[in-house]
Structure formats: structure tokens, C-alpha cells
Design brief:
By secondary structure, the chain is α+β, with helices and mostly antiparallel strands. It is 57% helix and 15% strand. α2 packs across α4, α10 packs parallel to α11 and α11 crosses α12. The termini are far apart.
Amino acid sequence: MADIFFGAIFLFIGVAACTIAGLRRRSGTRIFAWLGIWSALYGASQLSQSQAFVAALPLSLRISAPYARDVITFLAVFPSAFSFRELSLGKLRSLLQIFIFVELAIGAAGSALFLIAGSSARLMSYDQLFRAGMLVVLTIVVALPRLSSRYLVLPDRSVLAIGTLVFTMEALYNSLSQAIGYGTARILDDLGFAFLLFSLAYVALQLVLANERRLFSVEKELSVAREIQKSILPCSVPELKNARISTAYHPMTDVAGDFYEFLPSGQDRVGFLVADVCGHGVPAALIASMVKVAVQTVARCASDPGAVMRGLNRVLSGLVRGQLISAAYLWLDTGQRRALYSAAGHPPLLLGRHGELQRIESNGLLFGVLPDCDKYPVCTIPLDPGDRFLLYTDGVTDPENANGDSFGDKRLEDFVRCYQSCPPIEFSEKLLSELRQWQPASLSQQDDITLIVIDT
């Protein structure tokens, strides 16, 4: 009855732990899956040792019960080793991996000997010594603070140390008792295993909770960073005579490496800056915030795109420390009906005019390559009624479909031609929808997207 009781409990605990690990699927929960498998195997082994339980089984299962018990006993070592491996570091982790490979080799050799000679008892006795040696090593590492701090990830060493010591003492006592022909109560095995299992579960739960708190803290900081980044972007588009403007800004993650800014000068003149920091996430977002600061230093020369590019490169090259930034700047003067454009390694400016499309490239070096670079050519563009300018980052052209094909420049240009008569806001919405349809539904956004549409 004790075998049935403890076997059922450990089997239930194992199934529950595996279910929770499968549902959570977050960092740190894998150890619960290994502990669950270990507990379930131990419970199944205890049930297979109960004569009453085996007698209630169908004949086919009753005959195979002894073999199943031997297989379970052999397999149980693997989830136990993987459980400790989840908590280990450095050389101990490598040692556990070697232990797992050796156990696999012993299992294969033992199976071959059983098929050939009918017995593998001699090899299995060596295997028991090998396992006992590994258990002693783990116990020493857990028990000694200096070793545990170096080779284990433990928020609370004392609980695992107690559980491991109890289990090791019980295992050694049981082995010595059997060696001298003295039988021991099986309940001691159950209690020793329960001590070790629950101490490992306690430590694993502490690690998961610590990871959850750390993740919550990171998410909170990202939320603050997102709000800060929103605050450095323009809160509205400038009101310009004889022009309609729309913007779209969609970060890939909470924060982005894309940036845009307006430099207005009266009701008929304004500068449009779009920048794209190489990379994603928080590092790129920090560099993007530096672009905001750098823009203030060149605001006085907003009507000269070449000077704007040179000034930004000079300021940012001393700050970004190896990071690269592409940028494009368009100065629009609706009063004099002309535009000036310059860029730094950025995708071309697209100009839709009378149903035709022009690619305007006037690129110098990316910001951050050479601090004293002064070669940023400026292109002069006369304005015609109905012109449409499109400034964008490579997040518009880079998304890939399920076959690995990029959306690409050609599709973007075809789209601009097709929807040139749409109002700027509607055009932006249709383009973003087209990009979402291009990407597989199972994939999230692949890059930051910034888009500025200007109709004159």
C-alpha cells in the first residue's frame, strides 16, 4: 500500500510539473519539466514494485512489469542529471554533460550484453558505482559555499544542501545495508527522494520568481523608455501652405532606432529629417535620442541640407562610438517652388510626378564613419503641383515573405505609382497594410518603419 500511495503521489506531481512547464514555456521553467519527468519515473517505478498493483494489471502488462522497472531505473538518471545541469555553471555543467553521455554509452553496452550473454549485471554494478561517485561530487559542490557559488546558480543554497545531504545519506545507508545483507524500509527511499525533489523544486521556483521580477522590471523600464522616445518625436505635422503631410512610425520592439524631425521656418518652408540607426532595441533607441540633441545644433542652417548633414555627422561621430546612422534631409520651400535634398547612406527619396516616378539619390557617407567628412552633395528639385515626396527607412523595403523574398524597391515603386492619387494619410495606411500582408502572419514586424509622405 505504501508503494501504491507514494507511487501515485510522485506520478501525479510529475505530470502536474510537466503540465505547468508546458503551459508556461518561459525562461527558467525547463527545470520543472525535468523534475516532473524524474518524479513521474520514480512514481512509476514504485508502482511497478507493488505486488498488489502489478497483480491488478492485464496479463501482458504484468509480464513486462519487471522489465519496465529495470528500464525506468536506468532512465531516471537522465532527468536527474538534466535537472542539476539547469542549475550548474562552468566545469560542473561540462561534467554533467559528460556524465549523461557516459550513461547513454553504458545503457547501449548493457543492452547489447543482455541480448548477447543474457545478463549485464557486472556492467550495471560498475554503473551504480559511477552514479554514486557523481552523486558524491554533486553533494560536495552543493554543501561547500565556495564551490556552490562558483559552479551553481542558487538563490538559496541551504535548502538544496539539506535536501541533497539527506538524499545522499539515505542512498549510502541503503547501499551499505544491502551490502551486508540488512534490509531497509522502502519508505526511507521515498522520504529521501522527496527531500531532494522538493528542495530542487524550491530552488527552481525561486529562480523563476527572480526571473519574473527581473522581467517585470525590464518591461517597466522599457515602458518608460517608450514614453521618453515618444516625447522626442514631433507631436504633430507642420502646417505648410500648398502642402499636405502625413507620417507613420512603427517600432519593431518597444523602442526603435528610427527617428524623424521637422525643422519649420515660417508657413511655406520646412525641413524633413529621417534617420535610421543600425541595429534595433534599446541601444539603437539611445543613439536615436542623440540624433534629437544633434538636430538642435544644426537648426540654424535648416535651409542648407549639406550643412545639416555635415553638422550632424560631426556631432554624432564623437558620440556614437562605432555605431552607424543613415539619414535623409529634405528642405521644402513652397513659396519659391523648390526643394533641396541630401542624404547619408540612406534609401533614395521617391518623387511621384505626373504618373512617373523618380529615384533621387544624393548620398554621402553614413554618420559615424568619418567625423570630418564634408562631402554631402545637395540635389535641387523644382516643385510642380501634384508632386509627391516619399521619405522612408529600410524597414519599408526589407520585410521578407515566407519564401525569403524582400518587399524590395521595385514593389515599393510600383505601389507609389499605383496609389499616387490617394491622399497622404490613406496612402500611408495602404502601404503599411501591404507590408503586413507581405510578411507571414506567424512572424512579427522585422524592422522599424518610418514613413513621411508630402504632397505639394
